[in-house]
Amino acid sequence: KAPRLVVIGGGFGGASAARYARTAFPHVAVTVIEPQKSFVTCPYGNLLLGGSRNLAAITHSYDRLKRRGVDFIHDWADAIDPVAKTIKLGGGGTVRYDKLILSPGIAIKWGALAGYDTGAARIFPHAWVPEKGEQVTLLRKQLEALPDGGVVAFSIPANPFRCPPGPYERISLVADYLKKHKPRSKILALDHKDAFSKQGLFQDAWNELYPGLIEWVPGSKDGKVVRVDTKEKIFETEFGTRHKVDVGNVIPPQSAARIAVDAGLVNETGWVPVNPYTFEAVRAKDIHVIGDANIPGAMPKSGFIANTTSKQAVASAIALLEGREPPKDPIYFNTCYSHVGDDYGISIVGVFRPSEKGFVETPNSGGVSPRGPLAQLRDQRRLEAHYADSWYASITKDAFG
Ligand code: FAD
After folding, report:
1. Which of 40, 42, 100 to mutate to test the pocket of ligand 1 (most atoms within 8 A of CB)?
2. Is the pTM of this model over 0.90?
3. What are the residue ranges of helices labelled H in 1-104?
4. Tell me: the pLDDT tens digits for 236-277?
5. Does 76 sit in the ligand 1 pocket, CB within 6 Å?
């Protein structure tokens, strides 16, 4: 009888795992449990906000995976029984697994920021989980309705969170839209942190492309939003400053998705500790947790990492199931590209290895794009924007194609 690999979540980690498993281990039966019928990516959602992509361009069908022989159950996984090795489905019914790949992404910690609940997200969208693209579409509509001269505010959380450069790419592309269509408007970026990914590169770009448009307030200078008021449209900070906003994007504190929490896989951080060689959860046998839900050590919570690590997780799961050694000496790659304007891309690269201490960055392996005046680096920036587009095309093909 074919071994049963079940995957919960058809996002970057889950879809990549399913496609790789079908390709590399054709004797294994692969089933994905995912409620959505197609997947809207968070990557490139910021381009939708900027106006250079539409929803169709960031929506991916599961049809090609189905044609490759991956079975889909379009339902929620409601509960996992790690002893019986079964999953209870939202719509009733039970699915049995030999090995489970869990890639359910993140949950928003509703209420961790006072006033921010599911209702508040309809006024101040987060646009930080894929869903059906409703949140990102709502935020775009709000930007379109913004009067020229309005204030667009961002609340940015402390580490760790999904996609470290994501808020700053978003600020850049919203600035691009405002500069072109509502040039008297302002961006107020309120941050819990004092430093962020690719900071020098982003701030250089903001000064050159959008002078005077963006005010970024670090945490120690009263940037921490602690309360939102959707009726008065206020972002209130730690020191009691009340900012009136016209459009507000709250990127809230996050944890591993609910299914991982309910299954008892997370530790006190709210994320899932895993064996860095096999991705097996420290707290449950035969459940391999990939993507943003796990504790990635030095690696970022990115779609790129969800994709690269999915392969080691699948190969390890199947090797362990069949009594073989998991692949030795894996190397995990990441590149996070960000668009900051037309024909203007920047990136950060990292190479990581597992160790007894978790995932560690290989010394002198990565780096960021060069800094300098745009006049001198125009070709480099243009090339990186092009690399970013190629990356998006290839990773979505590797996951959903
Ligand atoms: P997801 O891709 O979110 O997939 C999780 C899936 O699990 C979802 O489809 C969900 O429906 C499903 N699910 C959840 N719970 C259950 C359940 N109980 N039962 C069944 N299914 C369930 N990364 C990059 O590498 N490059 C980028 O440029 C980039 N840009 C980004 C920009 C933004 C604005 C954001 C928010 C993120 C960006 N990311 C980027 C990060 C990237 O989106 C995530 O790291 C990636 O999606 C993580 O993959 P995942 O599989 O863990 O989760």
Report:
1. 42
2. yes
3. 12-24, 45-50, 63-67
4. 999 999 999 999 999 999 999 999 999 999 999 999 999 999
5. yes
